[in-house]
Amino acid sequence: PEFISVANLGLALNVKLDIFVQQLEELGFEDISKESILTGETAALVAQEYGYEPTVDIGEDEDLKPRPPPEDPTSLPLRPPVVTIMGHVDHGKTTLLDYLRKSSIVSQEHGGITQHIGAFSVNLSSGKQITFLDTPGHAAFLTMRQRGANVTDMVILVVAADDSVKPQTLEALKHARSAKVPIIVAINKVDKDSANVERVKSDLAANGVEIEDYGGDVQVVCVSGKTGQGMADLEESILTLSEMLDIRAETDGMAEGWVLESSIKPIGRVATVLVKRGTLRPGDHIVAGRVAAKIRSLRNEARIEVDEAPPGTAVEILGWKEPPDAGDQVLQAPNEDKAKTAAHYRQELKERAENIAQQAEQDRERREKE
Ligand code: GTP
Ligand code: MG
């Protein structure tokens, strides 16, 4: 596709520039300025908003696209819920995660030392599974959100019983609300003498959280990451909410997911990928951002090699020539050729966008001099 700067598009649509930028923000563009570069495709959509019927030639599209949403999601198999733990500093997020992680290791046949991979799955005695995400780097989270990805199905909002609602509690609430992700409240540290559960509840209610005890539908669970008290109830609440949300995905077809983390380890370039649709297996060809890869192996959080990663699970993927970025979408390609073409095409798009941005910058500087 061709590219156009916001400034030039505003000119073409005959809208005053500062008003145009403001209207783009209202249309849902984040971090937009007059220097921002839009693809022809996006520009055409914007032009339509202004009542134009644009004809754009977006060229031969060699990109890889996600599949269209399923026609009848209710007929798909259930998948494990993906859960993110959020809350104020020191309220016990890591302690809760560690507790859950340990219980997941113990329940794994091979056991062993865990390694932090940004996500892990807990196998419950009922045979059900829950996938927890470590509170990921904000940047990656934001990138995924901007691309409309709801990586997480629900948020566990951790509030310390001895400290109650604090600024980052409200921050987390804001995030969950804007992403339209339902929450479960975990009142933590209830083992402490200074715990005051009722105060937490009324503080939450005062901040618009419609908790069950007050007639709402937000579940509240009292837990202790230290003693393990209430942890089974927390898992139970997660499953209850999952059932209500009816979380399903295709296990077949071209897989889709998101890069949660990416790093270079002695064993090679490794990315933790959360699979959202389809199933990834060794030998599959995938593209993440501008990087193509043939999956060499998949490992779970205990570093055990697995044959497949079905939807709702996170795995480490080995086999990258270059590390992908956290926040990149992962798409499976039907073959190596398609994967490489798409990666190459994206690289070219980026270079062209950079050239145009550079050109726009030079134009601006020139105008300023004149
Ligand atoms: P940040 O990552 O810094 O935001 O903190 P966090 O939310 O991950 O809290 P963390 O798990 O590190 O816990 C903070 C402190 O509270 C640690 O000293 C924990 O040992 C303690 N703590 C966490 N959970 C409990 C609990 O259930 N009971 C008691 N008594 N202490 C807890
Ligand atoms: Mg922590």
TrEMBL record:
Entry keywords, A to Z: Coiled coil, GTP-binding, Initiation factor, Mitochondrion, Nucleotide-binding, Protein biosynthesis, Transit peptide
Predominant location category: mitochondrion
Coiled-coil ranges from the UniProt annotation: 342-370
Region described as Disordered: 59-80
Domain Tr-type G: 78-250
GO molecular-function term, one example from the UniProt record: GTPase activity
One GO cellular component, as annotated: mitochondrion
Cell compartment(s), UniProt: Mitochondrion
Function: One of the essential components for the initiation of protein synthesis. Protects formylmethionyl-tRNA from spontaneous hydrolysis and promotes its binding to the 30S ribosomal subunits. Also involved in the hydrolysis of GTP during the formation of the 70S ribosomal complex.
Protein family (similarity comment): Belongs to the TRAFAC class translation factor GTPase superfamily. Classic translation factor GTPase family. IF-2 subfamily.
Protein's name in the database: Translation initiation factor IF-2, mitochondrial
Residues of the full protein shown: 252 to 621 of 851
